Write a sequence for this structure.
């Protein structure tokens, strides 16, 4: 039986979808996870189930000592395991992206340096080392600016600042977010870049021997101007003119080649304005959360199955969009304790709604960006055209009423 080593973050939305795809393809999955190294032995888990994805050299040593058989490839489900997967493929002599290419794309500063050096549209940007007073950069900044953690994803640790006071507040806040989320925060520092005006779009693709095949181009019809950048709607096919779509694909393809990516899924984010295409990021992974399910109809399979098929040497199919489709990552309106949702059945019965998945768990704390990196759930829809998809998703979202209570409630004392 074909074997794939799959890096499964314990907090990922997508673990079950990958495991289901593997079962459908009769692929044996060897799982490596980032469970707590102190709790895993108490649960009877093997060492391979308690490795630190963010310490790839150490984790790779543990996994290689534990593996009984050489897999066909190593895949990461989410951002957390990308560098480790690349390192393992390299050490095992397997096909995959080089660790250097993955590191370059995961680091927002390194990515900006790559774009700037090769003539891409690129905002003015400045590194801010951890031991540097952010005020020293103020004379060199042209507001508005965006303060970014260097390796976080899903809009986590990204804040717009319109003036020096907001900038100083944003740098303090983003430093705190990064310090909690990245063990190398002190060495990384932050990146400060000029705000790029324009609407956002996303490209989902797959690389085979360095050649990019576009699976979908998504419109993001909600204006993402900050101060935080929580994504909501993804709708495909794009309503952009074909010439503009071609320009986006060319920019992504060129950046992938320059970065050294050669194989596997690619998720790219960009903005468009009168000066053209501005790449925000390119990740050597597929679209996050449960959003990939929006492509199931066009692909004739789940995107996870497509990725696994390519990993074992099969050619990915050409997408067939005979209708429009979209997904909403349901935003978290406030920090608090999630207590439930009303009108779910009503929203689910709207014509065009394919599914609504509420992923927030009752009694758990939900946190919006820039600190949080999750959603209340996902709304999926299809219609004859993109406008119809956008309309029905917004209608469904308006139906839903979420109960989120503050973490601490003041109790009035009686007199």
């Amino acid at each position: 039986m074909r074997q794939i080593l799959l890096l499964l973050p314990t907090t990922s939305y997508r673990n079950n979808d990958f495991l289901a795809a593997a079962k459908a393809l009769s692929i044996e999955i060897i799982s490596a996870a980032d469970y707590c190294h102190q709790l895993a032995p108490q649960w009877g888990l093997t060492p391979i189930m308690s490795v630190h994805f963010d310490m790839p050299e150490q984790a790779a040593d543990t996994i290689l000592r534990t593996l009984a058989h050489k897999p066909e490839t190593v895949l990461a489900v989410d951002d957390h395991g990308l560098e480790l997967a690349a390192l393992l493929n390299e050490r095992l002599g397997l096909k995959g992206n080089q660790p250097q290419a993955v590191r370059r794309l995961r680091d927002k500063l390194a990515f900006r340096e790559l774009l700037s050096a090769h003539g891409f549209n690129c905002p003015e940007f400045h590194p801010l080392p951890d031991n540097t007073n952010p005020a020293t950069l103020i004379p060199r900044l042209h507001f508005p600016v965006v303060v970014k953690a260097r390796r976080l994803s899903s809009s986590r640790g990204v804040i717009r600042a319109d003036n020096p006071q907001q900038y100083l507040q944003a740098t303090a806040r983003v430093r705190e977010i990064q310090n909690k989320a990245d063990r190398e925060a002190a060495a990384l520092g932050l990146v400060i870049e000029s705000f790029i005006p324009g609407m956002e779009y996303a490209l989902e693709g797959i690389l085979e021997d360095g050649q990019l095949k576009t699976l979908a181009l998504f419109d993001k019809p909600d204006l993402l101007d900050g101060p935080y950048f929580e994504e909501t709607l993804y709708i495909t096919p794009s309503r952009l003119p074909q010439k503009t779509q071609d320009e986006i694909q060319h920019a992504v393809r060129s950046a992938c080649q320059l970065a050294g990516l050669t194989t596997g899924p690619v998720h790219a984010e960009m903005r468009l304005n009168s000066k053209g295409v501005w790449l925000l990021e390119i990740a050597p992974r597929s679209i996050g959360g449960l959003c990939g399910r929006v492509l199931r109809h066009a692909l004739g399979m789940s995107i996870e199955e497509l990725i696994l098929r390519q990993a074992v040497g099969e050619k990915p199919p050409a997408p067939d969009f005979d209708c429009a489709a979209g997904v909403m990552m349901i935003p978290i309106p406030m920090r608090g304790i999630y207590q439930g949702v009303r009108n779910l059945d009503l929203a689910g019965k709207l014509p065009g709604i394919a599914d609504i998945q509420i992923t927030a768990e009752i009694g758990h704390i939900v946190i919006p960006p820039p600190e949080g990196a999750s959603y209340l759930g996902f709304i999926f829809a299809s219609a004859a055209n993109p406008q119809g998809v956008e309309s029905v998703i917004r209608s469904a979202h308006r139906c839903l009423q979420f109960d989120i209570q503050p973490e601490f409630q003041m109790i009035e004392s009686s007199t």
About this structure: The first helix runs from residue 15 to 24. The two ends are 73 Å apart (CA to CA). The chain has twelve helices and 18 strands.
